## 1
Amino acid sequence: MWDTDLYQRILGLEKPWFVKSVDLQVTESRVDIWLEHAPGVKWPCPQCRRELPCRDHAEARTWRHLDTCQFQTHLHARIPRVECPEHGVLQVAVPWAEARSRFTILMERFVIDVLQQCATIMGACRLLGLSWDEVWGVMHRAVRRGLARKRQRVLPVIGVDEKAFKKGHKYMTVVCDLENATVEHVAEDRRSESLEAFWQSLSPEQLTAIKAIAMDIWTPYIQATIKCVPDAGGKIVFDRFHIMNHMVKAVDKVRRQEHRRLSAAGEDTLKGTKYLWLYSEENLPDKHRPTLETLKELNLKVGRAWAIKESLRSLWDYSQEGWARRFFKKWFAWAAHSRLEPIRKVAVMIQTHLNNILTYCRHRVTNAVAEGLNSKIMAIKRRACGYRNKEHFKTAIYFFCGGLSLYPR
Ligand SMILES: [Zn+2]
């Protein structure tokens, strides 16, 4: 078998295309394959499929293909151009590559697979013998394809979360499908517009089909949602972990204030106790338990703050809203009269937003899945060794977390 026949078969080339010649350069570990087509063939216009004669040829182009053993393999061809009465002069489609790609379809699929498996983008570049820009080109195209192919589907449970993009409080808004754990939307900042753009991308049917939206208590998100989502009042569920996080921070504030006061009086009772108070009781490591028990006996302010925080967690155990309200009323009286200002402040905040905290009784959703995706996003950020811009970062999030159909066809 001639090398041209061999490549004809392994490339799966079909008429009118054939392999004209194969050039193997052993010292450079490289195979170059020249493709040509039979003369007198009619070609379909890429826009309307009308059959047209070849007008002329575009400049010769090169596509990187899968390696042949250890040899980098490149295809070369001059693509015919047709002159369509309706669409003008255009290059025809070739079966081995997508328009404007510098890779064959098989190679592009392989790059996508390697990227998905690689710990770093640079690692993928090295493995594939491609430049950073080439790999990014494949990622961008893959994401563009994936987003274009995306079908409208129902998203009953949605999570909205903010993600710090860089130090210095630059944020991105990330919207997740909490049932499938996929990122559906990434937008800059955490303003009302950041989220509105997503709601506006949904059809009226999709908006109506939303059952629950988990989010932090963050006014711009609340406003955007109330503006765009029908019956948002019954659908927004303020994330319990975010609320507990506010509470934990309040406990820490009480501890710092008390520690400062005690230290000034020469007492270091609270020294090194920061993390003791932040754990939820059942997660406290055993080695800290005796210390906590001793400290609880001392009638400290932080001890009271801690007890109020721990008690609040029961709020999410109720499945009946009425019972949850009764519980909250008692808890609120306790917190409000605790004479612990940070605690009182959070209690008031919770009271203000209670209706959409208790929606949890009906929709037991939290952003925990989104938080899981967030750690995936953090990992993406790390392994890209610094993204040159937000667009790259967005692309990577969609590429790795979007659940998209990425391959060329
Ligand atoms: Zn046409």
## 2
Amino acid sequence: MQVRRRVWLSAATCAALMGAMAVPAVSAPSGAPTAVTPPAVGAAVDDDGVPYPRQEPLTEPPVDEDDQSNWRGAIPFHEIAPTVNEWMEDSEYVSAEVVGQSSQGRDLYLVTITAPETAEESAQQDAWREAIKHDAANAQDDAELLAGYKAPIWFNNNIHGNEWDGTDASMSYIAELVEALEAGDEEALALVEEHRLYFTLSNNPDGRVAGTRATALNLDANRDFITNTTPETRAIRDLTGDLQPVFFIDLHGYTGVLQVEPTGPPQGENYEHDLLMPYSYAAALRIEEDVVDAAIEGNPLTSAGGILIPYRDTPSGWDGWPPIFTPQYVQFQGSIAYTVELGPGRTNDLEENARRLEVNRQVGHQVIESTVAYVAENRDAILGNQMEIFRRGEAGEPLVEIPASPDPDDYAGPDEWAAEWDEADVTGTEFPRAYVIPAGSADAATLVDHLIAHGVEVGVADAAFTAGGEQYPAGTFVVDMHQPLRGLANVLLSDGSDISERVPTMYDISAWSLGRLWGAEVDRVGETTDPALDVTTTPIDAAPATGGFPEDAQYVSLVLDGVAEVQALNRLLAIGAAVVDVGDGRYVVGPEWLGAARAAAQTYGVTFTATDGSELAGDDVRGVSALRVGYTTGSSYGGEDELVLEELGFVDPVRVSVAGLTDGSVDLDEIDVLWLGAQLRFPEEDDTARDAVAEYLAAGKGVVASAQAGAALAAEFELFDVTAVNGPGRANGVVLVETAEDGVISAQAEEAAFTYGPAYFTDLGEGVTVEQTYAAEPLLSGHWLPTAEGTGGPEQAGGQPSVVSAESEDGARVLVFGTDPLFRTHPRGMFDDVAAALLWAGPEGAGIEPPAEEPTEEPTGEPTEEPTGEPTQEPTGEPTQVPTEEPTATVAPTEAPTDGTGGRLPTTGAEAWPLLLLTVLLAGGGAVLVARRRVTE
Ligand SMILES: [Zn+2]
């Protein structure tokens, strides 16, 4: 499969366009990958042939006296733009661009230091960068490229808002470099002729101002690099592909002593370590040497007189494994990438704070200077390795796996690393030949759009084909793993590995898998050395629209299996439609609301199927209602509970806390159903909150809860008997589960679930229903060992309940998850489990009249013949019509939201009210194809 997501305009074309003062924004002819996609918001540098310097002045924000940078003695956010503007006035070597906005709308700045480039020269750089990735075999021998390409080096700062000092260090370095350039320093001039130095000065300005680690969404952005719920990480993700750095550093604090981190064990299994580690480790040693030599006053060193290099100094369990961290993500661009932790941390003594900031400013400055010098001295080799990584990917060569205690002579480059590479570092994976993703569902389209946003190349099959013994229709998505970013594609889609035996504990998550956890079917096919699939594919820039709606139906049903399906259902409920749960995973809408259902199908890309309404007479039929969800939140950066509930379309969820219940600011009378992400801990001395919850439950109102919260609630109010057995708090992974038929979540649950601090249930009382169990060997990937007492491990959990439900004597319905369906907004395939549980536990809504048996009794006076359009009973059926829109007639997936979604989760249809109403009005009759564009990213 030949895939070129972008074909760069020729320099001449670019120059012509620039003459017309336009950023090239040529819309793509359908199906043809030969045009430049419109420039994505948040990726200002993706402008082919825009010359340097780029000096549109940055908008200077108002002075904020409360900026918490002041507390640290660091540069407040509002001073950054004026300083950059001054540099641009003084120097043609400084450029600045806005590459996105934070959750609260602050600009994310990219400052570039490089020698001026004409439009033609800039376009040439773009073409070379593109060739390095997509034509690496030839680029490796291109003398002009090797001589003329400006190697990109990128420093990201302040992703943790209350780790201010990297910003100050970067600005210190820039100021000094600009001064040298303006003074005509020859070394400095040579540097900017041969490199582009990029600085994202504050990746989390909201946190910088507020003094918080998290972003304003209350998520840790440096855990968000494959989910990308935060606009801050989406901006960096997009830049990563656009800048394609050869070296990347993410500056943090505070570990007491400077810490420089080439990856450590367990090493990520999808990287070309033989090409990355030699120079990565040698550069760290160079930084150490320079920092020690600089003898910066007040800078603490280790007892050995050096800095901390975890690869050398920390035997196990550091940051190498999950690609949720910025450097572990960027490294898939063939980049050497570090986290750098600046040393002295926060203190309440303000003078001491400022002193420490000054130490870190100088140390960080030195780190940047040493890194740039090291890259400059080793540019050809480091750039060559980047090209080799992309070449291996395109060629589909197996990963080179490094044995313990390798012979350094077997590898190119510096050899110091080899002595440190031991058993714990050994890693590797086998790439499949392709991933095949059946099309048609909104979940599959969301996944594909997300892959494309990461730069993964996806095609659609031009014809039906067979692969891995399965038959697939034309239009099936294919991720051919012979591609430059195959490591990234694999880390996103593969199952991952069980690493429980490799290290005693893990620092953060040990597994993730968009392939397993995002609700779409993803099939792994073949091995990387196999021939290509026996089908041609057409590359796409966005997944084709999904959704369908039957002709001439009287009743329609929707299977609630996916995020978009929940959104569509919640939209119908929000506008007052009657929707009935018929007990088999289907939700039925009657004749009065067909127009609204049709509009929802279009807005959310979901498929409704015609039905004759006979199931409305069944025993399990129950109207559902629009839910005001009250929630408690558990994890330390607990934005996930609110964000997911809002994304699912539950309107205005209310945060519930014991304090709020006690002071009366939260009224459970206004809550329809509770989601307990965290346990309600009632105080001994005041029963107000406890009484409020007791009253809520006595009224028969329901609860959906995480394990400990649910078990504690059941015990406290004697709702039913259950014991939650916890595994180790840090155990986590992708687990295999088996879901009961005809249960609350049987239509929603996938084969796999995510758990962090897994729990299973024992001692089930009478009336407690097992909704789901862990498979006999539950751990598919991750790190999960028993506790020190030998309990709570995967062996003990195997076959035990993972989800249970019960109904109290007062009629309160309760469902409890032992898994973690909302974890950091990542396991999207589990969100609908939570939605189905909330609808089940929430109050009963209006019913729908079943169809009359005799034509004369038809209440609406409509004819009562069978719906003519479609087979009526296929809950899992195909879309009733195939969307006809071309994939390219859609929004480019890399665009950041430009509307009022406020940087929330990638939402679908949050702005859709006017569209919905309009469509209701227009959707009068006749067969209407509904196919919509989802608003993503
Ligand atoms: Zn940090």
